[in-house]
Amino acid sequence: MSDPSPDAETGAHRLGRVRRAIDLVGSMVRLHPRLFAVAVLGAFVFAVCTVAASFAVRWVIDHVILPRFEDGAVATAAVVGGALLVIGIGVVRAAGVVIRRSFAGMTQWRVAETVTRDVVDRLVRQPASWHQRRADGDLVARAGVDVDAAISVLAPIPFTTGTILLLFISSGWMLYIDLVLGGVAVVVFPLLIVLNVVYQRRVDRHFDAAQDHLGSFSAGVHESFEGVQLVKAYGAEQRETDRLAAIAGEVRDARVRAVRLRATFETLLEVVPSLTNVGIVVLGAYRVRSGDVTVGELSSVVFMFTLLVFPLRLIGYTLSELPRSVAGWNRIRSVLDDPLEPDPVASIGPASERYGIEVDGVSFRHAGEAADALHDVRLAVDRGEVLAVVGPTGAGKTTLIEVVGGLLPPRAGAVRLAPGSRSIVFQEAFLFAGTVGDNLSVGRAHDESVLWEALRMAAGDDFVAALPHGLDTMVGERGVSLSGGQRQRLALARALVRRPTVLLLDDTTSALDPTTEAIVLGNLRTVASATTVLMVASRPSTIALADRVAFLVGGRLVAVGAHRDLLGAEPAYRSLVEAFEDDRAGDRSGVSGVSGVSGVLGAATIGSDGS
To answer: In whole numbers, what is the pLDDT of the chain averaged over residues?
Structure first.
């Protein structure tokens, strides 16, 4: 079979563009059809009154103005009738404008509200595993600037539909007045429409590129602000500036190319009607001299054609906005049409009465990776037991925590947990820019006594009590006013407020000193003795405080047992722990050690119902 010709591909591409434009308008109109219908009705009233105004101009000139010049007098009834005709048409036309603009604006922003809500709802309903594969800034752009771009074409559409009606009515009216003058005016209309279509076809790719670059720019800015401490710590301000400037330059270049095309288009749209109007006046003068038309009829045609110039330009404006709107709509649809992925939490079943956590043959592979991050992991943790997960970098420790917590779906196997809530606390504690109390409750109502009890268990009550306003102290964006250890203790307290039956810690106590860490784990054993704890640990003191240790290497569970037993039975485990001890000793002597960064989330709580 021969390959399709370039012309066929171009035709298919253009047809696809038309279909997407129709889908865009149809989809948005269906969201609020009544508001849109009223706006179109107002546009139709405006169109009819515009043609009627041309008729009124003709009547007033032929029955009021010319008789006054030719006969020296005019009947009072004619003057009053002409005035009432002009005023009445003007009032109704103004009412049509008010209705069209008001309801077109309401339609546009109601659609924006609905689409934004749908996008945000879709983002919320997608599981964490879906979000981890996408840039946060790009998703924010789809719920913001892409929605603004998509709806930009909606407000002028009622006027455009009214203008199309106006073209048909005015064409018939001008041809009725005089076939020659009307024919000259009507022939120009297709030329102006062709100019609009040609412009739209040439400019759409630039708007597509600009919208995509804008999404990339939003993602880049979001990433840069999220990593502002890292950027400043490594003196990478200029690197980030150059990187974002390059992306912004791509947005600018695409927009400049589109604006240049628009400037050419606007010039042609201004010149063609003006030259046509001059031609109509010259030709009309000959038609008046020959007696084929009256002065009123010529004035009516010129007036009608002049009134049509702006509506025709609005059609051009609508078509010029269409590529940008289609580009934004396509990016929105890519989110809305993306199937909802199953929530991994829904696959978690209840553990047997003895166990708090059961991991039964779980395997997991990250997207794009050839090897499993976890392979046939089998693990059972008694209720109320503290189990430390230990392993070298890349062993799959964090992945195991996220699979058990229901953030990642296992490729094979099953996870079963004790009934109740599950709380996850990651090494990098994320705090909202609110008060301490807001960060502990996260939107749920709790008595202050419950918050203080959780703080006490996390060894954070003393430093919170010393803050200027206690629980009402503002912590700043991402908790910038607090130390790393304080943020970790607040994140841990946030998890403990919910009295979880299963607590997952991803090297959460790494920023705490050994004494504070021992207090926290001791509190978990006494006050929260029914809580099953699965924690990633890289500090020997933390490992020694656990009931048992799960040794993970290369995504495989090598051994499970008491810390002392593993030291004697597993040489690789003993070597790793000794390396940890040497690393800690190096830290104490001023030599920089190496530690893993296990996440960027903070504390998240997942209820037994999957909420």
So the answer is: 79
* CA–CA gap between residue 277 and residue 99 (Å, rounded): 30
Contact 551, 557 (CB under 8 A): yes
Class of domain 12-336 as given by CATH:
mainly alpha
Q: Which of 60-76 are b and which e, b meaning 16 or more Cβ less than 10 Å from the residue's Cβ?
A: bbbbbbeeeeeeeebee
pTM equals 0.64
Locate the domains of the chain by residue range: 12-336, 345-606
28: left (phi over 0), alpha (psi -120 to 50) or beta: alpha
Pick from 505, 511, 435: which is nearest to 477 by CA? 435
Phi, psi for 410 (deg, rounded to 5): -70, 140
**Across 371-381, average pLDDT:** 90
239 pLDDT higher than 80: no
Alpha-carbon span 478 to 6, nearest angstrom: 53
What does the alpha-carbon distance between residue 124 and residue 6 come to, in Å, rounded to a whole number? Answer: 42
Give percent of the chain with pLDDT exceeding 70: 83
In this prediction, residues 226-252 reach a mean pLDDT of 73
Which residues make beta-bridge pairs with 382?
Answer: 355
| Cα(192)–Cα(194) distance, integer angstroms | 5
Q: Inter-axis angle of helices 76-125 and 6-31, to 10 degrees?
A: 100
pLDDT score, position 595: 36
| C-alpha distances out from residue 201 to 18, 325, 522, Å | 10, 14, 70
Report yes or no: 441 and 489 within 8 Å, Cβ to Cβ.
Answer: no
CATH class label, 345-606: alpha beta
**Res. 588: pLDDT tops 50:** no
Query: In which residue are the tokens 């179109």 written?
Result: 40
Sheet of 386-390, strands arranged across: 556-561, 548-553, 386-390, 532-536, 502-506, 422-425, 603-606
Q: Are 326 and 146 in contact (CB under 8 A)?
A: no
Is the pLDDT assigned to residue 8 strictly greater than 50? no
Give rounded-to-5 percent helix, strand, coil for the chain: 65, 10, 25
